[in-house]
């Protein structure tokens, strides 16, 4: 029962982190193509907040990733790693629930 609760909590946190990665990606594209301006206070605040939340998670990944030029694969690696954690926790939750019966 504890693994099911842990799976649900961690699954929710993973969903929030994945959504933040997507927001960061879209916002960086919009800034790069001058669709939105970083000098806008709201855009700057959102961009800084999302980067501040994700940077502690992305920094260790970037240290181990090879240099790929201007393409940053660290967010993709983060999402894949988080999904692997979600799968492992789901299987632990299923195993503990079937063993408790």
How many domains make up the 3D coordinates? 1
Please work out how many helical segments DSSP would assign: 3
Tell me roughly what share of residues is in helical segments: over 70%
Total DSSP E strands: 0
Give the percentage of residues in beta strands.
under 5%
**C-alpha-based Rg, rounded:** 17 Å
**Uncertain stretches:** none
Shape: elongated
Main sheet: strands, sense, barrel = none
Pattern of helices and strands: HHH
Can you tell me about this structure?
The chain crosses the membrane at residues 12-33, 64-85. It comes from Novosphingobium fluoreni. Keywords: Membrane, Transmembrane, Transmembrane helix. There is one protein chain. The protein has 101 residues and is mainly α. It has one domain (2-100). 81% of the residues lie in helices and 0% in strands. The termini are close together. The model has no long low-confidence stretch (mean pLDDT 90).
